Amino acid sequence: MKTSQSLSRNKSLLFGILLTSFSFLYSGAQSEKDKKTSVISTKPFSDSMNHWYGIADKNNIVNPIPNQPKYEESEYTKIADNIIYFQRDNGGWPKNYDMRAILTTEQINDIVGSRSVLHTTFDNGTTYTHVYYLAQVYTLTKIEKYKTACLKGIDFILEAQYPNGGWPQYYPLEKGYSRHITFNDGAYMGIMNLLDKIVHNDPNFSFIDAETKSKVNTAYEKGIDCILKTQISDHGKLSAWCQQHDEVTLLPVWARKFEPPSVSNAESVDIVLFLMKIENPSEQVIRAVQSAVKWFEDSKIYNTRVETFEAPEMDSKFKKIKDDRRVVNDPTAPPIWTRYYELGTGKPLFCDRDSVYLYSLAEVSRERRSGYAWYTYNPEKALKKYPEWQKKWTPETDVLKK
């Protein structure tokens, strides 16, 4: 009897140990899972971050210290605090800083002390990315300062919009090409994708009041209208968009000296992907998508590959150059597109810092040839999505059918 009781106690003890171990492991797994779900991606800040570390700029408020430490992505409140440090008095942000940097006291003081400088922008993934990050942090924490900063950022975006629906690169408006409506580097579509989240009730924006939501809805519709009006028409035939459009005439315009008015395939892809997301698209939206997709198909370049290779190091006014690029014939290469196509002729177009039109990569100076993305595969993204979109919204009209 004692032996039986002893065995029973041992079994109970063993079961208890196993149960405790399982509970501990399960708890640890849950804790790890919770930790993962609480990470907010900082990838949207990567363009600005890379510029801060990679390009010395005497106009920066602060520059990185050697081996600047960084917060883990799970430390989202500390990253959000950085975002608030950088927010200017008008609600916008300056570009080219690392939101994950563990800032020194001196850096923080310099940043906070510059809040009245209204050099604020949408360039390099700035402002609209900060707004969405703050919305996510407020949703997780319910800490009021993140909500306040987020709403201030939304107000800035709404104020910066032109009456015709477009957005400049910088606001308040500055001299030069930054006043133009800017599709370059994802600025315009970054804003539109943010507004799309608010319009379509992304849970991270559930705190937005009815008045602000109404203003966002209006800005969103105006933004779509401007997209449709800026699509390039050549003798009545629509193609795609330019990197920048005049803020008054809406026509394609020069940006930097090597960025000519042209059909700009790389920037146009994000516009088309956005238009494809619209439910129950209007006839104008359908026409815009069909026309751009047909343009992408017709402007394919075959048997072409761009090759980067090592070359003797040389100094330019802008940076040290250690490589070069060339175009090679390759019958196995997938279709590729140039970044620019000449208005009127549809020819692949290149340019240099002297703004002279060129028609091959080999004619471009080595500094610009190796330092700029002259070719792109991006249109393939729109072409791949088109069949599903076409079957849903225009089953009787397929512009890709030969």
Automatic annotation (TrEMBL):
SUPFAM superfamilies per the UniProt record, alphabetical: Family 10 polysaccharide lyase
Stretches that traverse the bilayer: none
A GO MF term: lyase activity
Top-rank taxon, per record: Bacteria
Protein name, entry field: Pectate lyase
Keywords per UniProt: Lyase
Pfam families cross-referenced by the UniProt entry: Pec_lyase (PF09492)
